[in-house]
Structures are given as structure tokens and as C-alpha cells.
Write a structure and sequence with these properties.
The structure is a single chain. The protein has a single domain, classed as Barwin-like endoglucanases. The protein is built from two helices and nine strands. A hairpin with a 5-residue loop joins strand 4 and strand 5. The radius of gyration is 14 Å and the shape is globular.
Length: 126
């Protein structure tokens, strides 16, 4: 049996831009993508904690060090600058691979500074 598990997560990012005129996607500073082990152009699920919206799109690598989280195209209707979002990428593993697997989790603060990078669950207190 094949199982779909979360493999990488960026937790509590703040949207920095929303651009309706771009063709689509979520632009993310490449440094965050690398830390979360999310590949450029990989399919992602974006959950907006501020307004409850959820959307699927793909990750576009942004400039290193820019701290950018830019919703583009129609996806820009799903959030506003300053909204808190969690970004997740998933992988398909067989049952044996899934046993004990833990995703890479990158936790950010209100300025999009990395405050934690770990394998596994994000504590509720953060």
C-alpha cells in the first residue's frame, strides 16, 4: 500500500505580497524551501490561519534572503499581506518507509525569522 504523508512544512509564515497579475503560485524565499526540503515547483498545500482558506498551488523559488512569501495570480484572492500561513508538501511512501518517518518542519516568527528547524511534530505552544 502507498501512503501520502507530509514531508516538509513551513509553519506560521507571514505573507509579504499578493500579486493578482502574476500567472499563479506561491513565491517562497529559496532558503526556506531548502530548510523545509520542499523543491522548486513542487505541489504544495497552503493553509491560511488568518482567514481559514486552503489552496493547492506550487512553490516558486524566491530570492535567497528576501523572506518573501508572495501569493500570485488567482491564489492572491486567498490571502492578504500579513496573513499567517502554513505551507506543506507531501510525499508518497510505502508502509515500511512510512513507519517512523518524520517530516522536516521549519517554524517562523512574526518577522519570518526561522526560530526552529526540526524533524517531526510542531509543538502547539509555538
Amino acid at each position: 500500500m502507498q501512503l501520502q504523508l507530509i514531508k516538509g512544512k513551513i509553519h506560521r509564515a507571514r505573507l509579504t505580497h499578493c500579486d493578482l497579475d502574476y500567472e499563479g503560485s506561491l513565491e517562497i524565499d529559496i532558503d526556506y524551501l531548502k530548510k523545509a526540503e520542499i523543491l522548486p515547483y513542487e505541489k504544495i498545500l497552503v493553509v491560511n490561519a488568518t482567514n481559514g482558506e486552503r489552496l493547492e498551488t506550487y512553490a516558486i523559488p524566491g530570492e535567497a534572503g528576501s523572506r518573501v512569501f508572495r501569493l500570485n495570480g488567482a491564489a492572491a484572492h486567498k490571502g492578504n499581506v500579513g496573513d499567517i500561513v502554513t505551507i506543506m508538501a507531501f510525499g508518497i511512501l510505502d508502509e515500511k518507509e512510512a513507519q517512523g518517518f518524520q517530516p522536516k518542519v521549519v517554524v517562523l516568527n512574526e518577522k519570518n525569522d526561522v526560530i526552529a528547524v526540526r524533524r517531526g511534530r510542531t509543538p502547539i505552544a509555538e
